[in-house]
# Entry
Amino acid sequence: MSAVALVTYRAQPQLTSDDHLLVKPLLTQGIEVVALPWDVPHADWSWFDAVVVRSTWDYHLRPGPFAAWIAYLEAHQINLWNPPAVLRWNMDKAYLLELDRQGVPIVPTLLLPQGEQPSLAAVLDQAGWTRAVIKPAVGASGDGARSVTLADAAESQSSLDHLLAHSAVLVQPFMPQIQDGEWSMIFFQGRYSHAVLKRPAPDGLFVQHERGGTWQAQRPPAGLVDQAAAVLGVAQALHPDCPLLYARVDGILVDGRLRLMELELIEPDLYLGGDPEAAGRFAEAICGTVRRSRPAPGLRQMAFV
# Structure
């Protein structure tokens, strides 16, 4: 029996209901699933044939320790997915600007360096944006994100100053197309699997379920999957030695074309429950990582040293 760790976090150490859908198809393939928080003390990660990052939903609150955990597994040649270099790159949303330089259509983005104290009004005025969104460059689940306007920039200045004291900050124009929905297209080993359309509450900003958003499994418009695959191809070209186990391409339609909001390569919800065959496809992809790893030992006992 082989074993795979699906990595969680200590506040919610067990598998999410979505990731629990992987247990049966992996067990059918002779692979045991263990849920394990990334920062559990003294875990022997070498016990696993593969370590798959799933619901590490506090990494953005502790980016230093999380990066150190990645480095530890990398130094000990643990079979970590997605690969360490990709996880590090994707932690900081400044990757959007790198994709932009490579020709990927993104939502317009300004990066304000940590520690600076620019005038929010001046930033918005110079960009020509009357409404915008500010968010930490290292962030997840909408934490720290806020909608601001040129009219209330003075009142919102303290929010920007607070973010910049702890992180670089992205400033993006508010995109009204978000009300039509944000597409999330999911890929396993570079191959398209399924998609969902996420919508915020009326007049809202956030598409996350815990912030009032909703989602629905839906077939993307013609050509949209190819555009998402092209985004993924650019990211893969930037990391040619780091094949991707999973990826989620998030974007909105602007004039019929995909504008990238985020490329999720660390701990995205993969909406496995949105397609009856999605969990099986992901399980098969995980099996591929196990087959390429070391031969599975015989009788093993999990070690916490």
